[in-house]
Amino acid sequence: MVRKLVGKSRYEGKKAWRILNEYYSVARLYINFFQPTQKLLFKHRKGSKTYRKYDRARTPYQRVLESAHVSEQDKNELRRLKEGLSMVRLKKELERLGADLRKLAVDSPDPLGAAAVAQRIATHKFIRESNQRAHSLTELQPMQRNRFEAELRRTIQPCREER
Fold this sequence. Notes:
This protein is mostly helical and 163 residues long. Helices cover 66% and strands 8% of the residues.
């Protein structure tokens, strides 16, 4: 849940710690009072088919109010808390805190760099596999050998240009 809320970046320092604490306190209110969830009631397997039955979607706040295990005093306290909350204000506050937090990210993932690394890994894997197949190159027909060598040259050329 944490990664879903704040992302995969790393944060350091007291300022980031304070913003994260504030973010979590606002997110707790937003999720518990305004985000409905469905709970699995039962799951039944019949052959290769699985049948699932879910409860109707309700917020954790609604579930607590409907529970017989919670005292009326606690329920009244939650009702008073809910009266002072606004879903729109909480959402705007989460967006603001998220933007402040992203400014403090230590190492944000670079999608272009990740794509370049992935391509380089794929190229090296292809070369490794090609070297394993090169032993059987003499067994190939001349036309297949030419096609294989041309493909190998096209793959190796970009690697040499990067150096």
